[in-house]
Amino acid sequence: MKAKRLFAAIELPESIKHVLVDLDPKIRDVRWVDAEQMHLTLVFFGSVPEDVDLKLREKLSLIHFGAFFLPIAGVGTFPPKDSPKIIWVGVGRGHPHLFQLHKRVSDAAVAVGLEPDLRPWHPHITLARCRNVPSHLVRRFLKSNVDLDAGIVRVESFHLYSSKLGPAGPAHTRELTLSCSGGL
Question: What DSSP element (H or E) covers 14?
């Protein structure tokens, strides 16, 4: 049976993506994410068999949520100390609706038999992946962008994506769009 790597995410407007791409400090061995691949992951499902994929789509389509706004602000790394692997931009303090949406998507996954991710969820947008980059170079970038405010996003939908790993990094394909049922 075929399986796909799937995740649910919030798409960013083109204007915000361009602001984020323009932050690239051109540090050696820091691979900036292509604008078309930038998103805010709600839940990563992993490799999902075809029959479970169909059930997941049904459960996701039952999720009701209202539109809400998210600030795109603040930068950091994973891990937060030591040698960075990921450079990210955050969503300020987020929004209660964002955390509710994350929980509903997670609950839909569990309802169709997918294993829950037990790690704490830290909403972010991955900007870059690092390989053996000296911490001080990344810290310089973080310090120069400590007050980053890339704008506000109105969240009116989220999407189910498939992801294929390749030599240039993962390539994401939108599989399904789920729109809000009202709100702001």
Answer: helix 14-21
Exposed, middle or buried: residue 110 (CB in 10 Å: 0-12, 13-18, 19+)? exposed
Is the distance from CB of 87 to CB of 127 less than 8 angstroms?
yes
pLDDT of residue 104: 97
Structure-block tokens of residue 157:
């939908």
pLDDT of 103 reads 96
144 half-sphere exposure, CB direction, 13 A CA radius: 9
Q: How far is CA 33 from CA 23, 94, 168, in A?
A: 11, 22, 10
DSSP 41-85: EEEEEEEEEHHHHHHHHHHHHT----BEEEEEE-EEEESSSSS-S
Check residue 183 and give its pLDDT: 58
Distance, C-alpha 65 to centroid of its chain: 18
- Element of type H or E holding 100: helix 96-111
Q: Which domains does the chain have, with CATH numbers?
A: 3-163 (3.90.1140.10)
Mean pLDDT per 10-residue run, the chain (184 residues)? 93 97 95 94 97 98 96 95 93 90 97 92 96 92 95 97 86 95 65
Is the distance from CB of 158 to CB of 22 less than 8 angstroms?
Answer: no
Cβ-based neighbour number of residue 79 at 10 Å: 10
